[in-house]
Amino acid sequence: MFRLACEGGVPAACNNLGNLYEEGRGVKADAKHARALYERACNEKSAHGCNSLAAMHDAGKHLKADPKKAFSLYDKACGLGHAQACHAVGMAYANGRGVDPDKSRAMEYWEKACSAGVDAACASLGVNLMLGLDDIPVDIERGRKLLSDACRANHAPACKDLAGFHLSGQLPWSDPKKGVILLRNACTLGYAEGCNDLGVAYAQGTGTKLDLVEAAKSFERACDLGSMNGCSNLGVAALEGEGVRRDAKRAAKLFAKACKAGHEQSCELRDELDAGTP
Predict the structure, then answer these.
(1) For residue 208, what is the DSSP state?
(2) Any domain includes 183
(3) Of 6, 93, 168, 209, which residue is the least packed, with the fewest Cβ within 10 Å?
(4) pLDDT tens, 26-77?
(5) Mind listing the pLDDT tens digit for each residue in 208-240?
(6) Residue 265 contacts residue 228 (beta carbons within 8 Å)
(7) What's the CATH number where 24 sits?
(8) Is 163 in contact with 190 (CB distance < 8 Å)?
(9) Who's near 248: CB < 8 A, 6+ residues apart?
């Protein structure tokens, strides 16, 4: 049906058909054909088609990564009304990926995406309004509301970021106990770094009682979810026997895993362990 609609001049159907070919759902996976369908959809002004093609170029999925091309396509998709693409443009401006960094422009695109209901964009706005970096005017109350609303909408990174403000004790309303609750929410939602930060809170006794067993459990969940910080922290726990059985071999494997993924501290810990230094 998507093929018939695409051939009949419905650009969004070409994008949907491309999705099926890219993912191999109902047809044999064919990334080249998927890309051609996305290009056709985008050329015919399908916002979803431009966004799908941008994602390919951005992640280097099925082709060589091209941040500049991805930025251009995300910007086109945003102009065609794709709210998630507007958030992606904001992230590109914030990180200088495919375009010169410009935090003010990032905020403009996040405002647009947030207004369209993209929780990640609202969270990015909230953090930057609270930090006020790069000449962004500080607005603590609006920033907190944006983060709180995004967290209530189950956007786990917003819960983690809001928790950080509570745990840091930097603001008059900071409450470490609330911070731990927010980190539990983020971890329950499957956010790896939320689990890692929860482990740190347990290990340090910040906002909760010191509990090395719970810390190790949180680090393990974080590692399983893909946090190399979590793998490294679990490795330290295994090396020291804190909350888990002392196991130098397990620690070495965890450090090696995190090091391979680019976690520099784990590389140093692995090298120290190999050298027999404490």
Answers:
(1) S
(2) no
(3) 209
(4) 999 999 999 999 999 999 999 999 999 999 999 987 789 999 999 999 999 9
(5) 999 999 999 999 999 999 999 999 999 999 999
(6) no
(7) 1.25.40.10
(8) no
(9) 238, 239, 273
